[in-house]
Amino acid sequence: MWRLFSAWLVVRITGSIPLGWFGGDGLVEELAVCPLCSQVSVDLEHILAFCMGTGFLRGTIPISEDTDVVRWVLLGSDDVDTLYKQVRYFGTCIVTCMHAAKMHA
Fold first, then answer.
1. Is residue 50 one of the residues assigned to a domain?
2. Structural domain of residue 15, as residue ranges?
3. Residue 105: inside a domain
4. Is the dihedral of CA 43, 49, 50, 51 positive or negative?
């Protein structure tokens, strides 16, 4: 969980996707192609909020339909349980994306 938390902090600071924390190379602002849905030129917002490949995960977070997912994930919280859910959701989305990238490589 500490690895996910440190990657989450890096995203909050840089706004980049921390591939280096998940078996990739460094920090990138966007991926040329999403390995989950094949959309071209995707950023962190796509992976967390719009990708069909991570859509099943969005049902696991305690937010309403009109909540900005990216804002909720990166905002942080004073409540430890909410913070855990934010970091866990972020990490699971990125790991799912990286796993798909390795499968296509």
1. yes
2. 2-99
3. no
4. positive
65 φ/ψ angles, rounded to the nearest 5 degrees:
-60, -30
- Residue at 85 is within a domain: yes
Coil/strand/helix, residue 53: coil
More confident of the two residues 22 and 49:
49
- Planar angle of CA 94, 92, 78, nearest 5 degrees: 105
In sequence order, which ranges of the chain are alpha helices (DSSP H)? 2-14, 44-45, 55-58, 69-75, 80-104
For the stretch 30-49, pLDDT in tens is 999 999 999 999 999 999 99
Q: How many domains does the chain have?
A: 1
Does an H or E element contain 78, and which?
none
Pick 8 or 19 by higher pLDDT. 8
User: Does 80 map to a domain?
Assistant: yes
pLDDT of 105 strictly over 70? no
